[in-house]
Structures are given as C-alpha cells and as structure tokens.
Amino acid sequence: QVQLVQSGGGLVQPGGSLRLSCTASGTILTHYHMAWYRQAPGQERELVAALPGDGIGATYYSDSVKGRFTISRDNAGDAVHLQMNSLKPEDTAVYYCEATYAFNEWWGQGTQVTVSS
After folding, report:
1. CA–CA gap between residue 72 and residue 103 (Å, rounded)
2. 3-state secondary structure of 91
C-alpha cells in the first residue's frame, strides 16, 4: 500500500521561498513518475512540475513556474521535493504530489501555499 504524505507549505510574502516535500511509505519512489500539481479556488488542477522515473526522460516545468521552482528526488528515493523561490501571489493554491507507476496513481493529501503580504 503506497501512501504519500506531504509537508511544508504555509504563508509566505511575495518574493519568498517555500519547500514542499512528499514522502512515501510502503515503497521507494525511484522508479515512479512524480509530479506536483496545484489547484487554486475556482480553477482546474494544473500540472506544475514532473520528474520521470529512473531518471529516464526530461524534467517538466510549466511556463508559469519555470526558472523559479525545482523538483527533486532524495538519493534514498523515499521523498520528492518542490523548492519554490521568488513566489508570487498567483502561486497561491493547494499543492498536491502525485506518483504514477504501472498505470496506477497515488496522491498526497494536499498542502496549502499562500503568497500574500
């Protein structure tokens, strides 16, 4: 049974930084395709960043976060992180991590990120 637990997030001023983490229990994430999504109120869920399993393929960033956000995986393979720098008010949303493998997918519980002065 794969479970993803998210941590990080919170309230930050514009221009600040936050780091989200997604930790797995019941498996290691090395082989999984990992992604971070976000959903703002009244909007559809948006793919923010994605990291291919086993390092095969390119890392993806949406245009809205490219150059500011970095997705990474722990060497131990049990956690994936989203480092968010130069945050803007429009980055405010609930952020979700997703793991996919062999046509199955799992989601974290969601973490609120609020960028406001």
Report:
1. 22
2. helix
Q: Whose structure tokens read 């993806």?
A: 60
Query: How many CA atoms lie within 13 Å of 75's alpha carbon, on the beta-carbon side?
Result: 0
Round to whole Å and give the CA distance between 8 and 111. 7
Compute, in degrees rounded to 10, the torsion defined by CA atoms 80, 27, 59, 5: -30
pLDDT along the chain (117 residues), means of 10: 92 98 88 95 96 88 98 88 98 97 94 97
Tokens, residue 51: 């990291």
Question: What is the bridge-based pairing of β-strands 10-12 and 69-73?
Answer: unpaired
Please name the residue that has the structure tokens 């600040």: 16
